[in-house]
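Hi everyone, sorry if this is the wrong subforum. Our group has a chain we'd like a structural model of before ordering constructs, and none of us has done structure prediction before. Sequence below.
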Amino acid sequence: MSLAQRRTLLEFVDPSLEQSVTNGLDMVERRLYEVVDTGDEFLTEASSHLFKAGGKRFRPMLVFTAAHFGDPAAEGIAESALVIELTHLATLYHDDVMDEAAMRRGAPSANSRWGNAIAILAGDYLFAIASELVADLGADVVRTQARTFARLVHGQISETVGAPEDADQIQWYLHVLAEKTGSLIATAARLGAQLAKAPSEVVEALAEFGEIIGVAYQLSDDLLDIASDGDTSGKTQGTDLMEGIPTLPVLFARTSDDTSERLRELLSGPVAEEDLAETLRLLRESSAMDRAREVLDTYCNDAKTIALGLPECPARDALLGICDYMVARSS
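Answer:
Right subforum, don't worry. Here is the predicted structure as tokens:
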């Protein structure tokens, strides 16, 4: 991913911070290919499949940014960023199998190309590499990574099983996002600051920021799936709708008294391609979108409040910019 594309996510106002984070990301990009190159051509191709499809590298970007609240040159920061990204990529292989997804980042998913067994094993291989790398970072980091992985799995199970009948559907969904998405982004911020030897209260605040902004990131994606025009966002319209994924606007539409019967019918399962345009139009006109945006605004404001409590520095300004970006990208 180019620097210009990265800057749409994390706005840098300080040249030295920008250069430091960019150098770190370039290092992660190189190391991703190095650690999966075992000499087995097929395994290397399968396990690097998602690297080649690109990505914002948001999690390692957050590691390197959080490190600027301490010593950004401290040992272990770059390796922790690599561990975080490998873990994230591994979960994508497994997610695509769970969701039976045909595409990932504009390219055929690993499961559609090689089958579910290879996709699962490729994900397992990336988890194994991440585990080997994290072992060199000390027992505390290993423990943090293990707890994060447990939360990721818990979130996936919760999503797969679904909410109990008596549960609040909205709160359950937000809980799943915190487990599946927020937990790893929280760990990215935590490890960057912790390994940089930032004060403990700063480490905890950054971890809290990461979890909240991680949920906001997914909520922003939920809105983008519906509000995007498809040409400027880079995201295909209605992907979640056609896959039957109950995102926040859909959950609000299903539970709102003012939702039309036609929209309820369309949202009762995966939306057929021939019904997509109508579904998108009705959703955009519904109160569900406004309610979902209000939830996103709340998360972004909460994250911004935490960031404002951090020591004043260019890294803090960059975190504040992330909050604004999350709102702006789905408007």
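For your construct planning: The domain at 3-328 is CATH 1.10.600.10 (Farnesyl Diphosphate Synthase). The beta strands are 103-104, 107-108.
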